[in-house]
Amino acid sequence: MQQKQALTLRDVAVGSSARVVKLTGEGAVKRHVMDMGITKGVEIYVRKVAPLGDPIEVSVRGYELSLRKSEAENVLVEAVS
């Protein structure tokens, strides 16, 4: 069986959805991401990425949120078919 390569939320293309597999990082950054409702199993839709890649605008549980690149790198995801 072939194992999928881990992607971060930062790697997801604009207009695509992904499902959260794991949150990495620690302390305030991880807590901030979790406070936004981004937890394991949640589906995230990437709406827009600023020209320099910061911030990344996403839709989660019906809410429109902005994440910094550093926060998006701590969210491991898998593509949604």
Automatic annotation (TrEMBL):
<dbReference type="InterPro" id="IPR052713">
    <property type="entry name" value="FeoA"/>
</dbReference>
<protein>
    <recommendedName>
        <fullName>Ferrous iron transporter FeoA-like domain-containing protein</fullName>
    </recommendedName>
</protein>
<dbReference type="InterPro" id="IPR008988">
    <property type="entry name" value="Transcriptional_repressor_C"/>
</dbReference>
<dbReference type="Pfam" id="PF04023">
    <property type="entry name" value="FeoA"/>
</dbReference>
<dbReference type="GO" id="GO:0046914">
    <property type="term" value="F:transition metal ion binding"/>
</dbReference>
<dbReference type="InterPro" id="IPR007167">
    <property type="entry name" value="Fe-transptr_FeoA-like"/>
</dbReference>
<keyword id="KW-0408">Iron</keyword>
<dbReference type="InterPro" id="IPR038157">
    <property type="entry name" value="FeoA_core_dom"/>
</dbReference>
<feature type="domain" description="Ferrous iron transporter FeoA-like">
    <location>
        <begin position="7"/>
        <end position="79"/>
    </location>
</feature>
